[in-house]
Amino acid sequence: MSKKILIVDDEPDVITFVSAVMEENGYTSIAAKDGIEGLELLRKEKPNLVLLDLMMPKKSGITMFQELRNDPDMSNIPVVVVTGVSEVTGVDFRNFMYKQPMRDEKKFVETTGLTKYTVPDGYIEKPIDVVELLKAVKEALKE
C-alpha cells in the first residue's frame, strides 16, 4: 500500500504540482488549502507525512505545526516544510524551531518522544526542486 502524503498549501498550482510529483513516485496525496483544513485532514486521514507551507490564510503553517506537535495522536507524523517564506521575508527558516510549552516536560518527553524543542523533519524552499523534494520525503519517511 502506498504511503499517504498530506500537502498543505494555499497555492493551487503548488498543490497540483506536488501532488503530481508524489503520485508519479508511488505515493497517495491528499491536499488542504490552509492550516484549519490541514488539521482536519490530519485527524481524519492519518497521513504518513505532511508537506507544509508556512504562510497561509486562516491558520498559518507555523500554528498548524505547533498544534500537531502538541497533539499526542499526531505528534510523531513527520513534517517537511515547503515554503517560500525566506524569499519573502529574508529570514532563513531552514532551522525553524518550535519551543514546546512545558507543563510537565518529563511526562511529555516520555509519552511523545519529543524534546522541549522540536523542528520539522525536512525543509524545502520554493521554487521546488523535484529531486530535493523527493530526497526530503524519503528521508522523513525513513525510506
Task: Sum this structure up briefly.
With 143 residues, the protein is an alpha/beta fold.
Looking at CATH, the homologous superfamily is Response regulator
Number of domains: 1
Report the CATH C-level class: Alpha Beta
Measured as a percent range, the helix fraction is: 40-55%
- Gross CATH architecture: 3-Layer(aba) Sandwich
Uncertain ranges: 97-103
Secondary structure category:
alpha/beta
* Number of beta-strand segments: 7
The CATH topology, please? Rossmann fold
- The amount of beta strand, in percent, is 15-25%
Shape: globular
H-E string: EHEHEHEHEHEEH
Residue-averaged pLDDT: 83
Write the layout of secondary structure elements.
Blueprint: E1 4-8, H1 12-24, E2 28-32, H2 35-45, E3 49-52, H3 61-70, E4 79-83, H4 85-89, E5 98-99, H5 105-112, E6 117-118, E7 122-125, H6 130-140
Parallel strand pairs: 1-2, 1-3, 3-4, 4-7
Antiparallel strand pairs: 5-6
Structural description of this entry:
The protein has 143 residues and is α/β, with parallel strands linked by helices. It has a single domain, classed as Rossmann fold. It has helices at 12-24, 35-45, 61-70, 85-89, 105-112, 130-140, and strands at residues 4-8, 28-32, 49-52, 79-83, 98-99, 117-118, 122-125. α3 links the parallel β3 (49-52) and β4.
